[in-house]
């Protein structure tokens, strides 16, 4: 089989599709669990965008910023998302808790910081919600790495 390559990179999602399919199944299961846990699509897309910002994945940022807008996240929220802790009035307590989880999972700070952020998030999240958000941040982080290391291109599109 000829290797799918983007410039000098192997597109690992195409090279090993059965593993990528399994990752997609994790994402689908996480989405279903989020619905069951009472986490709406907007919260989940905020997590996807924030993790993608932290990892620097342009493909996932492009994809999930559009999905976030479709889910009801405002342009203003997306504009200030990197500074969400300094603009808490733009985000609900659940959104802030989800963003805390997203950043903690992605950055894996020292144990004291992890404990502080975890405890702050737990004030607003059920056990099921906390679990789902950890899975969501872990899953989008994996997708980010697939896209970054495969060098998936961001296609230029006309703005609407």
Describe the structure.
- It is a single chain.
- The longest helix is centred in the C-terminal third of the chain and has 24 residues, at 127-150.
- The protein has helices spanning 12-15, 17-36, 41-55, 58-70, 75-80, 93-107, 111-122, 127-150; strands at 5-6, 9-10.
- It is mainly α and 160 residues long.
- It has a two-stranded antiparallel sheet.
What is the CA-CA span between the terminal residues? Answer: 40 Å
Main β sheet profile:
2 strands, antiparallel
Low-confidence stretches: none
Shape: globular
Which structural class do the helices and strands define? mainly alpha
Strand count: 2
Strand order of the largest sheet: 1-2
Task: Give the overall pLDDT as a whole number.
Answer: 94
Query: Strand portion, in percent?
Result: under 5%
Order of helices and strands: EEHHHHHHHH
How large is the count of helical segments?
8
Write the SSE topology.
Layout: E1 5-6, E2 9-10, H1 12-15, H2 17-36, H3 41-55, H4 58-70, H5 75-80, H6 93-107, H7 111-122, H8 127-150
Antiparallel strand pairs: 1-2
Helix pairs in contact: 2-8, 3-4, 3-6, 3-8, 6-7, 6-8
